[in-house]
Amino acid sequence: LEQVIISELQEKGYEYLYGPDIERDYHEVLLKDYFEAALLKINPGITMSILEEAYKAIKNLGLLKLEELNAAFHKYLIEGVPVPYRDGTENKTYTVKLIDFENSGANDFKVINQYTVIEYKNKRPDVLVFINGIPMVLFELKNMTNADTTVENAYKQVKNYQLDIPSLFHYNAFNVISDGLDTRIGTITSDFTRYMVWKSENGENPGTSDVNYFSVLLNGVFPKERLLDLIQNFILFKDSEGKTIKVLAGYHQYFAVRKAVDRTSKALAEGSNKV
User: Fold this and answer.
1) Which of 4, 13, 64, 116 has minimal CB crowding within 10 Å?
2) Exposure of 114 by Cβ count < 10 A (0-12 exposed, 13-18 middle, 19+ buried)?
3) How far apart are CA 174 and CA 241, in angstroms?
4) Residue 171: what pLDDT?
5) What is the pLDDT of residue 223?
6) Ranges of the chain with pLDDT below 50
């Protein structure tokens, strides 16, 4: 399954790296060199001192609960990181983009397997997707031929990771759990019943009963523009009885909204042409 994910994402333009080959501090989850290179590219005129302050801001989010840390990072992700600086005698603010949502090709997409993280324990998640040096998506995989390791075991493993290596999940957009057939997607606050199957690649019903939803999810969620659209526009945080809940839109919600937006855009364009 690791190799299938890697191959599929490479075909979609992601660069593949093998975790143990990356020279890094295993206590750090961000890939600082790739982060800096990507942000220099997508932030015209940025200085290294401003870049360093942006890096410090997302490393030190200043909160205690994982879901609140994640929400704080998501706000930076969507709105940018404001960094005050002096320009001669003037006080100014540079808003640092962490991702260029307008131009997916300007960003650095990587798929990395066997990426060790040492925090409360030493753990090595199966596959991670990094965008601009930031770990955004985790895949946890189980062998469908082993009756003792179900997709629910994959879910439990993810929840254990959140306790053992929580800093990895400060930046997490969502997780994927799969045994190759039963494949589901959910967020850091989703319980197992809220991990949902992604059932369409393009908004159309697959139309057969023997669909492999593992492939459907890879093709329906992980094209670069689609992934960025989901992260930017289809994740929200809400308060539920004093707890922060992170919600990712389901496939039916995503495609319904996109179709409605396309219809509206088309109608506006036709109306403009008539005028």
Assistant:
1) 64
2) middle
3) 22
4) 98
5) 98
6) 275
- In degrees, to the nearest 5, what angle opens at C-alpha 234 toward C-alphas 132 and 181? 85
The overall average pLDDT reported for the chain is 93
Exposed/middle/buried for residue 215 (C-beta within 10 Å: 0-12, 13-18, 19+): middle
Give the separation between CA 274 and CA 264, rounded to whole angstroms.
15
pLDDT value of position 272: 60
Quick one: CA dihedral 117, 120, 126, 130, positive or negative?
Answer: negative
Q: Whole-structure pTM over 0.90, yes or no? A: yes
Q: How many other CB atoms are found less than 10 A from the CB of residue 64? A: 7
Residue type, 63: L
pLDDT one-digit tens code per residue, 217-256: 999 999 999 999 999 999 999 998 889 999 999 999 999 9
